[in-house]
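Team,

Forwarding the record for the chain on the shared tracking sheet. I've put the sequence and predicted structure together so nobody has to dig through attachments.
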Amino acid sequence: NWVFFDIDLNGKTSGTFSIEGQRRAATQGASLGGVTFDLPPTSAYSVWASGHGLSGSDAEQTADSENGGRGDGYDNLAEYALGMDPTASDAGSRDWTQVSTENGTNQFDYVHYRRVDYAAEGLAYMLIDSADLSGGAAATNAQDQIFVGPAVDGYEAVTNRYEAVAPVKFIRLEIRKD
């Protein structure tokens, strides 16, 4: 037989808690005595992962478990930071490119979503660009951030602009969490 207790943690979400109870005769019902348990700290990331049904290794920031473990190219940290669903193949749904011309100059815009609480969450969004795919970065954040859209559901669209003067440019969004 199971006995369930409702426990009020007085608003705390982590720490060590103790529960004391009284011993009663078996005919008088359940008793609980001297139980101590720890609740691990909860971060916004762990709440997000749990809310998407992720657990164990699938909940790690570097995991990419969609498509039967083949992933969609975005690890969980990127999915969290961009506002994507780690259980669905939604690659490219929260970042995109567009080309425009302004005052006779070709422009290349890279747009991505960003959490409005990114600074408090220790998130950094960096655009790394280079002239080839050899791995060496020619510049980091060499673009101009020209527009941050209004917040919707905790995310804002950030538009970054490059002048399209180089014949070839490769751009990669790198997301880090402290």
